[in-house]
Structure formats: structure tokens, C-alpha cells
Structure to design on (1036 residues):
């Protein structure tokens, strides 16, 4: 069987998989015994699992151990039980960092997803000319590092030498010193991350959109459904799997916001852009409190896990309804 | 004489001819095109800033009023980078590092994702959730334990130390698994009935159909590793083992402050190979997305 | 089916083969010379001079001691040093910003050097402030490689144009700044500012400490927070009023943007580090150097320090070798070379300004050296203290009530000291 043959003869029937494979796969032929299947699966999984066990899982276990100590990186660490965790829930700075991170995620995640989806819809519209050019251009920010993006944006909106600042002033909009403004700084750093990442999400959405059979839209058109109605009742439900993936992934990224904040504001002004990962970095690498940094990391992991499960349950339910 | 009669009578007809000659252009299309164009220009503005600032002399970088284009173009910023850094070596290292990670991670992730998507083994839900959960710990938290392992293996300042710890990653497994699970089953089930092994199904049926997803993941992994700063910085202490991204931190200026133009030139130099690599695959990438679909 | 595992495992083998082809790191055998690795962030002309000093030292100790330097810029040294040292794979000698030394010393990263300093022949008299910055709880953990008070840089051309004299007191300073602030088009945003007074992340974190000292205030004294004082309240109000009334300085400036504002010629006066001399020359600014104008109570300036330390991974032989290098580095001849080459004043108290006058910047700084005060000496959690100071000054310059801010800063700083 050749590759070409397989590709060519493939049937394009749409079948929405569960976001996390919630339902077991009934279509799989159970022609082999369980033990043999398990062995085959293990063989496929082995390379990735070996690497991840050594370089991901084991370090995570080490970090978990550290989280119950006052480790600094050197010398003997003392067991301190749950002290680090207790400190997380009583420290005012940490509470502020959590609130800041939530604010960041609330700005970043929906904005990135909406912008990416809107552009994906426009770029898959046959009536738009130069689609290839737009696609490439809009994807470009993704291949720049977030640190460089942060530098470029900082420069653009600098109140003294910033070109964008100057242009906007020319048309009567005075941004002021955005990065030193306690209310504007957080939206600004979040939007830089949107700028950097929407291109990748857009590509994923475009792929998801291509997968929706055109016949569905044609049928809806014949029933007299308008554009919004088609979007609401065909596009969105059919995209729910892609959407779940992008949303969860964007949220995980948002909850770990660090790079551009480190470059653009360093957590300021007045710690208003200090995120949880900024705190983790500061406690670990500046104050040499590895134990505390590890504990904070685990709290972040648990919170992210809970939020992800909530989203999956939401998408799982929606899928059942539709 | 009314105003209407002043107009040449042929004008409306002329317009109609033109309109009939082309496809009818709808207002919504014009609006859409204008909207996308403006958005694209805004999106590209910071990239233009990087590009043009790299060619500005320092005095112009801080000039007021600011300008987009340099008044006096200079290549001094680039000369400084090429003279201060072992540039070719750093770029080569970046290719080996980012390319190596991409090669291994895509292969290992695909195999694992296949098992998670297509083989009904015991405990696969738990394993999948566990793999995804590893994405949720910030890497700053595990950097020091990872460093200890890499040191114990004697891999600091080696490509192995840079590549092997990243030769499989949760994002890739999750991403490909999402894709594999959506591929139609008819073909691989038929193949299985014909007695094909799982490896054969994976290699001959699933992989060819998964090309866009594989390419997307490859671009993602390559870009992220190419741009990664802390990883190569921490795992290489010898300058000649660094990547272009980590090497740029070696550029400093008086008081540890790098002139902005030099920074932008550095950013440009670091990203050009990436843009070229992307241009090379992007045609294939876009085509395959358009034809095969990706979830 | 049987082929599956073999094929799957092949890439793993490849990965391991990749690993196998790489060699391990070097080790210091007892047979050869003692080998030392030295990480530092000197990358400009100072880096070349330091390399020369190390090369000369190696040549003088041929077959006995070999020091290899590795550049780790100050910005990233925390990121690389901690993982490396925690795995005993770091340097034996490391140089870092002086206010970073106490936290590492406190966590056991460094070898104590009291014995080294006890040996009078090996150690000359050094600047007292510089020594304070390597001392934690009465024990010395490092050797200073730099200690320089912040100074005022001024743009000679702008001063000439405005016909203003170099100020020596705060009042003169504000008057001069007002004369040098020009808003040609009257849009409320001056095209030229008299001063760039950073309100956060200032040069060497020292601008506000310098101003506090000027009015007789301080941040930390004898391990206690003393920031909430009437003197500091006066200082903050004085500068807030000066900036609001005369718009003499842009707001929201930090050390990096301040440097670039001065070097673009848009600011007439700036409190900066010694590198501003080089930066100004590179940008064609005709500059002058003067001490920070005296405050109502005192003339003092916060200093920027750099210290080097001996890490705990050094064995006995390496410790001895490193101390030998420290002595060599502090010797009279090398000290003069180092001062001239780095552009920082000499650390030895027995080297006068006229011995380094072939570099006029160094000579000028040497005359000011006695004004320099160490920044947060011996304070382990300097990170949180400096954050609290930034928070205070930025809010105060934005016009928030100073008394409340000082009380908050007092609490935050005391908490950081008690940690």
C-alpha cells in the first residue's frame, strides 16, 4: 500500500474526537489480547517515556521533595514540613501575584483565542485576496522570541522615543507611560503575548476549519441561516475539539507568563505585573529559596490542573449536548 | 442645464462594462480586505522596528521625534556582532540543537501519541493526564534538578546535554494525539485485519496522513528551542557551545547595557535563519494543512 | 510484530550514541597545576585588562596554577551560577554585583576569607565601604574588584548654551535644572530636560540611597530598617515638588532609559555610573563629571560594587591558589593597571588620584571615592529591600502621600531583614 494511495482514497467523513479522548475507542478492533496490546503500546511509548521519566518526572519528584525543605541549592537542607505551603497561603505578595496572574490569564486567553479564530475565519474565506501573504505575515511574530518582541514593543511605546507613542500623540491619543502605569501595564504585557502567539493558534484553527465539511454550510444556507447563525451552530460546535486544545494550551501558557514581563516591567510598577512564575523565579534564583519556589510551583501545577479539568468537563458536556 | 447632464453620458456605461468585466466586488469583501490589511500592518510594525532600528546609528535610536526609517543607514551594529561573537559557530550550534531536538522529539512524540490515540491499552487515560500535567509545572522549578542529572551524566557543554532532555515533550504528545485520534479508522482497521503490525499502520497509514500536524509540531519545537535563552545559557558554559540566542547575551556594552541598535541587529541576525527555514517549509506546511486538515 | 520494539528503540540508541560521543568535563588532578575557573561579567575594556592580569598571573605561576576565565554577563550570572554551583560544576572564583554576595554567602556558597584578610602582608588597606560589601555577619566572604560612588554627569554643551554653572547643592541643582529645561513648542512636554532622575531600577540601585544620605537619612542601619524618618520624607517631598513644579525631569525613568536619554543629548544632568564616560564619548556628548550635589545635611553617594568570591567547591589546593591570585590582584602594580583599564577608582587606599591621572575619569572618581557609601552591606535579602525602595520612590514621585508610603516601606524592609 503506497502513501499516495492511502492519502488519495481517504474518506473525509468528520468525526469529532473527544477533547481528551473522554470516550474509549469502540471502533478499535479487539483482535488482539490485552497483554499483547499492552506490550505493543509500551514499545511505542518507551522512547518518550524514558526521556520524560529521567528529565521531566524525576526532576519533578526532586522539586516536590525540595518543597518540604528550606533548600537553597547548596549545603544541607532542613525538612520543614508544610511551612513553605503555609507561607504561600499567608504571604500578601503571593496573593497579589496570584491575582495578577489571574488577571493576565483573563486578558490573554480570550483575546488570543478570539483574535486567532477571527483571523482564521477571514483567512479561510475564498473571497480574501493575497491569502498566502497575509498568512505568512501574521504567522511571523510567532517565530520571534518573546524577549525580542518585548524589547521591540517597549521601544515602540516608550514615552520619550517611541514611534507608536509619537504617532498616536499626533492623532490626539496620549498613551502616557504605559509600562509604568499601574492599570495599563498588565494589559500591555498580556497583549504583547497575544501578538506573539495568536499566529500559532490561528494556524491550528485554520486546520480545524478546513476539516468542517462544506456540505453542512450549504445545507444551512439553503435553510436560510445567516452568517452568524452558521458560525454559531456549525462552526463553533464543529471546532469544539480544536477550541478545547487551544484554550487549555493558551491558559497553561498564560499561567506561566514570565519572559516578556521580566524584560518589559520586571514585575512593576509597584509589583502590579508580578506573576506567580516571576515570584518562583525571584525566590529560586534571586533569594535562593528553592524550597519555597518548588512549593509555589506545585501549587501552580495543581491550580492549572483543576482549571484544565473544569474546561474539559465544560467542553465534554457541550459536546454531548450538540 | 442640470448637474446630471453635465456628466459625460458614457460614464455609467463605462462603469458597468468594467464591473461586468471583473467579478463583482462586494462591499463586504473590500471591508474584509481592508481590515485584514490594517491588522497585518499593525502586527508587522514591531518587526519593521526591529529591522530598521538594526540599521540605525545609536544617536538616531534615541532621537526625538522618532522615525521608522534610518536617516543614515549603518551596518555598524552588525559589524559589532560579527566581530564580537563566533557567529558562524553559534548559528551552527543553534541548528544542531534546535534541529536535533526537533528530530528526536517529533519522532518520539509521534510514537507515543500513536499509542495513546490508537492502541487501547490499560491505563492510557491516566498516562495521558499525567503527561499533560507535566506541562503545568514552570520549567524554572525543575531546571536545577535537571541540571544535576545532566551534570551527573557528564553532559554539560555537550550537544547531548542540550538535546536529550528535550527529546520528548508533553506538548507534542498531546498535540499529535489530538490529531491522530481524529483520523478515520476505516483504513487502519482494514490494514490490521490484513495482518499489518501496529508499526506498519503507524508508518504507512497514520504518518502520511499526519504530515501537517507533524510539520506544525516541528515548526513549534524548532522555533521554541531556537529562541530559548535560559536552557543553552545554563547548560553551556563555554562560549563556543552556546547558541545564537544565548550567545547574544555575551554582547554587552558599557555598564552592562547593550546599545539598542546592537540588540535589534542581534535579534535580526538570530531570526533570519529561522525565517529562511520557515519560508522553506511553509509552502508545504500551508498546502498540507489545506488538503489534509488538522485538528 | 517482532520488529516493532527494535525499530522503536533504535532512535533511543541514537540519542544515547549522541550522548556517548561527548566527553566529560575537566578535573583537577593532583599531578598537574592547580586549575581554577573564574567567572566574571567584565566584557568591555575592563574585560581585556582583567584577562591580561590573569594571563600575567598564570605566566608567573607556570606549572603551578592555571586560571581560566569565562565571561558570564552580570545580567545572567544568577541564572547560570546557581544551577552550576548546586551541582558542583561551577567556577572556583566568581565575580558578581556586590549586593548579591551576602545571599550566596549566607546560604553557604562561599568560603570564608577571614584568614586571608588576617594576613597583613597579603592584603593591603582597602576602601572600607568596599570591604563592608563583602562582609556578612562579621565574616569576610569576598574580595572587592570594584567600588565606585555614583556621580553626576553633565552635558557641557547644554550648560554652555544656558550659561549655567555646575551645581554643588540641591537648591542650585534644581535651579540649574529649571534653566536647562526647555519646552520650545509649549506643549507641556519639554524637548530638553535639566535632569533625568530615575524613580525605579536606578543605576546600581543607588540614586535614591544617595539622595536619602544627602539629607541625613538612610535605608538600613545596623540591621534595622530606618527608612521611615522625617529626613527621608523631606527628601521625597523635595524631589517630588521639584519635578512636578518645573518638569525638570521626565517621569518613569529607570537606569537604562536614563543612560540613553543622557547619551542622546536630551538631558543635561544625570546621576550615573563610570561607564557613562565611555557611553558619552561613543555618542559624541561633551560631558563633565562632578560629585552629586551636596544635600542639606551631607555630601554622599551610594556606590556600585563588584566583588569576587571563592566558592565552596574549591578544594584546599584551589583555595590557596585562589588566595594567591587575590593577593596578586590587589598588589599595587596590578591595582593601578586595573583602575586605569577598568575606568573605576583604585581599591587600595594608598593609591592617590595623581597616580592614576593618565585616565582623567579615574582620577576624578578617585577624588570622589571617599563620598561612596556601600549599598545594603551584609543584607542577605537585598532583593526585597530594593523592591520596597523602588515601590516607595516610584509611588512618591507619582504623588502618593509620603508618610503612608514610608510606613509601608519600613514594614516591608524590616520583614525582609528579619527573614
Amino acid at each position: 500500500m503506497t502513501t499516495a494511495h492511502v492519502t488519495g482514497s481517504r474518506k473525509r467523513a468528520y468525526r469529532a474526537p473527544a477533547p481528551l479522548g473522554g470516550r474509549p475507542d469502540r471502533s478499535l478492533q479487539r483482535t488482539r489480547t490485552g497483554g499483547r496490546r499492552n506490550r505493543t503500546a509500551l514499545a511505542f511509548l518507551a522512547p518518550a517515556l524514558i526521556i520524560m521519566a529521567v528529565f521531566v518526572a524525576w526532576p519533578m519528584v526532586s522539586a516536590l521533595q525540595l518543597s518540604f525543605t528550606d533548600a537553597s541549592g547548596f549545603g544541607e537542607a532542613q525538612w520543614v514540613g508544610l511551612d513553605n505551603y503555609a507561607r504561600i497561603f499567608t504571604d500578601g505578595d503571593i496573593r497579589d501575584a496570584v491575582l495578577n496572574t489571574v488577571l493576565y490569564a483573563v486578558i490573554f486567553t480570550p483575546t488570543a483565542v478570539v483574535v486567532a479564530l477571527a483571523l482564521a475565519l477571514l483567512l479561510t474565506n475564498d473571497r480574501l485576496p493575497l491569502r498566502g501573504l497575509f498568512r505568512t505575515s501574521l504567522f511571523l511574530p510567532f517565530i520571534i522570541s518573546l524577549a525580542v518582541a518585548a524589547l521591540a514593543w517597549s521601544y515602540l511605546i516608550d514615552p520619550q522615543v517611541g514611534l507608536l507613542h509619537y504617532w498616536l500623540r499626533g492623532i490626539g491619543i496620549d498613551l502616557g507611560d504605559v509600562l509604568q502605569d499601574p492599570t495599563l501595564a498588565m494589559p500591555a504585557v498580556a497583549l504583547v503575548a497575544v501578538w506573539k502567539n495568536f499566529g500559532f493558534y490561528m494556524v491550528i484553527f485554520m486546520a480545524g476549519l478546513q476539516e468542517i465539511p462544506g456540505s453542512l454550510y450549504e445545507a444551512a444556507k439553503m435553510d436560510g441561516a445567516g452568517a452568524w447563525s452558521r458560525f454559531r451552530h456549525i462552526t463553533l460546535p464543529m471546532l469544539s475539539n480544536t477550541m478545547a486544545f487551544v484554550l487549555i494550551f493558551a491558559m497553561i501558557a498564560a499561567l506561566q507568563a514570565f519572559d516578556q514581563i521580566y524584560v518589559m516591567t520586571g514585575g512593576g510598577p509597584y509589583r502590579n505585573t508580578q506573576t506567580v512564575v516571576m515570584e518562583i523565579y525571584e525566590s529560586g534564583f534571586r533569594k535562593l529559596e528553592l524550597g519555597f519556589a518548588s512549593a509555589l510551583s506545585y501549587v501552580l501545577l495543581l491550580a492549572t490542573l483543576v482549571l484544565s479539568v473544569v474546561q474539559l468537563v465544560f467542553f465534554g458536556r457541550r459536546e454531548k449536548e450538540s | 442645464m442640470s448637474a446630471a447632464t453635465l456628466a459625460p453620458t458614457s460614464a455609467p456605461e463605462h462603469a458597468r462594462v468594467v464591473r461586468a468585466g471583473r467579478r463583482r466586488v462586494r462591499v463586504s469583501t473590500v471591508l474584509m480586505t481592508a481590515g485584514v490589511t490594517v491588522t497585518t500592518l499593525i502586527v508587522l510594525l514591531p518587526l519593521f522596528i526591529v529591522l530598521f532600528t538594526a540599521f540605525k546609528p545609536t544617536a538616531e535610536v534615541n532621537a526625538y521625534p522618532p522615525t521608522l526609517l534610518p536617516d543614515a543607514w549603518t551596518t555598524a551594529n552588525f559589524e559589532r556582532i560579527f566581530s564580537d561573537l563566533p557567529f558562524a559557530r553559534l548559528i551552527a550550534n543553534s541548528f544542531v540543537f534546535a534541529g536535533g531536538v526537533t528530530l528526536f522529539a517529533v519522532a518520539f512524540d509521534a510514537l507515543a501519541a500513536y499509542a495513546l490515540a490508537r492502541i487501547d491499552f490499560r491505563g492510557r487515560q491516566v498516562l495521558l493526564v499525567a503527561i499533560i500535567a507535566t506541562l503545568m509545572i514552570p520549567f524554572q522549578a525543575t531546571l536545577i534538578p535537571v541540571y544535576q542529572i545532566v551534570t551527573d551524566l557528564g553532559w554539560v557543554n555537550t550537544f547531548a546535554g542540550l538535546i536529550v532532555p528535550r527529546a520528548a515533550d508533553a506538548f507534542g504528545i498531546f498535540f499529535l494525539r489530538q490529531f491522530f485520534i481524529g483520523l478515520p479508522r476505516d483504513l487502519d482497521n482494514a490494514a490490521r485485519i490484513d495482518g499489518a503490525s501496529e508499526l506498519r499502520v503507524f508508518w504507512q497509514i497514520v504518518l502520511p496522513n499526519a504530515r501537517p500536524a507533524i510539520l506544525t509540531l516541528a515548526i513549534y519545537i524548532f522555533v521554541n528551542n531556537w529562541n530559548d535563552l535560559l536552557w543553552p545559557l545554563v547548560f553551556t558554559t563555554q562560549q563556543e557551545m552556546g547558541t545564537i540566542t544565548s550567545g547574544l547575551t555575551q554582547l554587552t556594552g558599557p555598564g552592562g547595557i547593550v546599545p539598542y541598535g546592537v540588540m535589534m541587529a542581534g535579534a535580526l541576525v538570530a531570526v533570519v535563519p529561522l525565517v529562511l527555514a520557515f519560508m522553506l517549509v511553509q509552502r508545504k506546511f500551508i498546502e498540507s494543512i489545506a488538503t489534509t486538515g488538522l485538528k | 510484530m517482532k520488529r516493532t520494539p527494535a525499530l522503536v528503540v533504535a532512535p533511543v540508541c541514537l540519542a544515547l550514541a549522541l550522548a556517548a560521543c561527548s566527553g566529560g568535563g575537566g578535573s583537577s588532578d593532583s599531578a598537574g597545576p592547580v586549575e581554577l575557573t573564574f567567572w566574571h561579567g567584565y566584557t568591555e575594556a575592563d574585560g581585556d585588562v582583567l584577562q591580561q592580569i590573569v594571563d600575567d598571573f598564570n605566566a608567573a605561576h607556570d606549572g603551578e596554577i592555571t586560571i581560566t576565565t569565562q565571561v558570564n554577563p552580570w545580567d545572567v550570572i544568577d541564572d547560570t551560577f546557581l544551577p552550576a554551583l548546586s551541582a558542583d560544576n561551577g567556577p572556583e572564583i566568581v565575580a558578581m554585583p556586590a549586593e548579591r554576595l551576602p545571599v550566596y554567602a549566607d546560604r553557604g556558597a562561599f568560603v570564608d576569607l577571614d584568614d586571608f584578610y588576617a594576613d597583613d602582608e597579603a592584603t593591603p588597606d582597602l576602601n572600607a565601604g568596599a570591604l563592608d560589601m563583602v562582609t556578612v555577619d562579621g565574616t569576610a566572604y569576598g574580595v572587592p574588584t570594584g567600588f565606585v560612588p555614583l556621580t553626576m554627569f553633565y552635558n557641557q554643551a547644554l550648560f554652555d548654551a544656558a550659561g549655567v554653572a555646575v551645581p554643588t547643592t540641591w537648591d542650585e541643582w534644581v535651579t540649574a535644572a529649571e534653566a536647562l529645561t526647555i519646552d520650545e513648542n509649549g506643549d507641556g512636554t519639554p524637548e530638553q530636560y535639566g535632569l533625568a532622575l530615575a524613580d525605579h531600577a536606578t543605576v546600581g540601585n543607588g540614586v535614591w540611597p544617595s539622595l536619602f544620605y544627602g539629607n541625613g537619612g538612610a535605608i538600613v542601619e545596623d540591621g534595622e530598617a530606618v527608612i521611615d524618618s522625617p529626613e527621608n520624607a523631606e527628601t521625597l517631598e523635595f524631589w517630588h515638588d521639584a519635578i512636578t513644579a518645573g518638569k525638570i525631569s521626565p517621569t518613569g525613568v529607570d537606569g537604562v532609559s536614563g543612560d540613553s536619554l543622557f547619551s542622546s543629548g536630551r538631558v543635561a544632568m544625570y546621576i550615573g555610573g563610570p561607564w557613562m564616560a565611555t557611553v558619552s564619548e561613543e555618542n559624541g556628548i561633551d560631558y563633565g563629571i562632578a560629585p552629586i550635589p551636596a544635600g542639606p545635611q551631607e555630601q554622599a553617594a551610594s556606590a556600585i560594587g563588584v566583588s569576587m568570591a571563592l566558592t565552596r567547591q574549591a578544594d584546599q589546593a584551589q583555595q590557596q591558589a585562589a588566595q594567591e591570585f587575590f593577593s596578586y590582584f590587589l598588589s599595587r602594580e596590578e591595582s593601578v593597571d586595573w583602575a586605569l583599564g577598568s575606568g573605576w577608582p583604585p581599591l587600595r587606599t594608598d593609591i592617590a588620584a595623581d597616580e592614576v591621572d593618565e585616565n582623567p575619569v579615574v582620577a576624578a572618581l578617585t577624588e570622589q571615592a571617599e563620598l561612596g557609601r556601600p549599598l545594603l552591606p551584609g543584607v542577605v535579602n537585598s532583593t526585597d529591600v530594593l523592591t520596597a525602595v523602588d515601590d516607595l520612590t516610584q509611588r512618591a514621585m507619582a504623588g502618593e502621600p509620603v508618610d503612608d508610603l514610608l510606613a509601608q516601606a519600613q514594614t516591608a524592609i524590616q520583614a525582609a531583614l528579619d527573614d
Notes: Chain C has two domains: 34-147+304-373, 151-291+381-418.
